[in-house]
């Protein structure tokens, strides 16, 4: 495996392992595998939200030689110690589900395929199957792999939006497809390999909630700007504060942003400058109206 080879090449002995929540049930087996390969392993039990979240300070403090980042691909975040990415592909055959559920997308002739890094191996067979049905298939390579998107980067879909009738996301859950549906005006279908169905995503209520929150901005007097010190999430929040000179503004810094940490603060409005998924997935948890900076056209 490439990641193990590279760890040995750089002579790493103690490794700090970061992994997403979805791999927690497998992480002890992974740890034993790494130990069998000769490594001393420390498992980070803090949440890992993506390749933007590199815990190099913590790894150095624990005297580790390298970070093994499982389940994500590199998008260029700099680190004080070497970071090795183990993308951890799932080898799942999507064709039985696609055949069973095909009628749900059969009326669309031009289909854009998208997925996240874990399901990249499934994309090729989906593409070949749909071509046998005389469908025109479109993908775009904007990240490491053709068709790959992130929770915060849907460029692979945006670049083919005008060429397709619909998008088919290959994977599980709503997380990645939801990011698409909020930014793209085409039907979004999920080929859910966990639940073994194809279903269409409808984020109408969420879009209404975002617009409702935005309506409070103009009258808001006390504003909290939410920022993160995660390496891949640091943005120019000072510039934003200068734009809001007519309002009372507080810059609030976090490692992990949660509504509970805001309790006791008297604020009318929140502008999220950290991971954009905070203003999407967690929007209903906040008692104070919250909007992602990129979605706030008035600023």
Question: Can you characterise this structure?
Answer:
The chain has 299 residues and is α/β, with parallel strands linked by helices. 26% of the residues lie in helices and 21% in strands. The protein contains ten helices and 13 strands. The strands form three sheets. A five-stranded mixed β-sheet has the order 6-5-7-8-9, sandwiched between helices. A four-stranded parallel β-sheet has the order 2-1-3-4. The protein has a four-stranded parallel β-sheet with strand order 11-10-12-13. The model has no long low-confidence stretch (mean pLDDT 94).
**What is the helix tally?**
10
Helix % is 25-40%
CATH class of the largest domain: Alpha Beta
Spans of at least 5 consecutive residues whose pLDDT stays below 50 are none
Alpha-beta content class: alpha/beta
Major beta-sheet overview:
5 strands, mixed
**Rg, please?**
21 Å
Specify the overall morphology.
flat
Report the CATH architecture of the largest domain: 3-Layer(aba) Sandwich
Please tell me the total number of domains.
3
CATH superfamily of the largest domain: Diphthamide synthesis DPH1/DPH2 domain 2
CATH topology-level name of the largest domain: Rossmann fold
What is the mean pLDDT? 94
Query: What strand order characterises the main sheet?
Result: 6-5-7-8-9
> How many E-type strands?
13
